[in-house]
């Protein structure tokens, strides 16, 4: 009999694996509905939806493996990274979905959220003031006009599967919607800056590298406290705090 593997679990949602099936339990029905809709619209391979009975979504496991994980070594050839970049470009060039995604927050809303979070990080002693201030300045470059794209919204390196140099699927679409394409590129290369050139070779478009760096800082500042409070370790080697330190 297959064992039950807890893939991730916190107060907002949990994902279990039983053999070749992933069971996603989410108390936010709107988030699950958005994920199912995004997978149906995305022009890239996605997991097969086996059934959907709120609050549980069952999807089939994807073949292949990821190119690594945050805090771990990056794997795969330059061609594999380029293939991931090409798949991401197909997504970004697709017709816009109806929903505004996580990557679609306005510059004013992001700036206000970031300022409040930076104050908390310093006041609580979670991060040194100079580290926060330096990364807050770097993050400024993300606050600029951008053309909406079909974005994944949580395109972590662990969410894209490949076999050899072919993308077999992209998982976890609950944050998808209209948004800033460079947010996806920055999320995918967070902690793996050395593979950005390979990814962009497949992406096939010029991007503003200062904005990518800005998103690395911005995303890391916004999630450090949440991760620590939900059982994750942003201080582990290669993870969010190291990303922030690299800007120093």
Automatic annotation (TrEMBL):
Molecular function via GO: transferase activity
InterPro entries xrefs: AGP_Transferase (IPR051678), Aminoglycoside_PTrfase (IPR002575), Kinase-like_dom_sf (IPR011009)
Keywords (A to Z) from UniProt: Transferase
Record domain Aminoglycoside phosphotransferase: where: 38-206
One Pfam family recorded for the sequence: APH
PANTHER family recorded: AMINOGLYCOSIDE PHOSPHOTRANSFERASE DOMAIN-CONTAINING PROTEIN-RELATED (PTHR21310:SF40), AMINOGLYCOSIDE PHOSPHOTRANSFERASE-RELATED-RELATED (PTHR21310)
Protein name: Aminoglycoside phosphotransferase
Species assigned in the record: Kitasatospora cineracea
Classification of source organism: Bacteria, Bacillati, Actinomycetota, Actinomycetes, Kitasatosporales
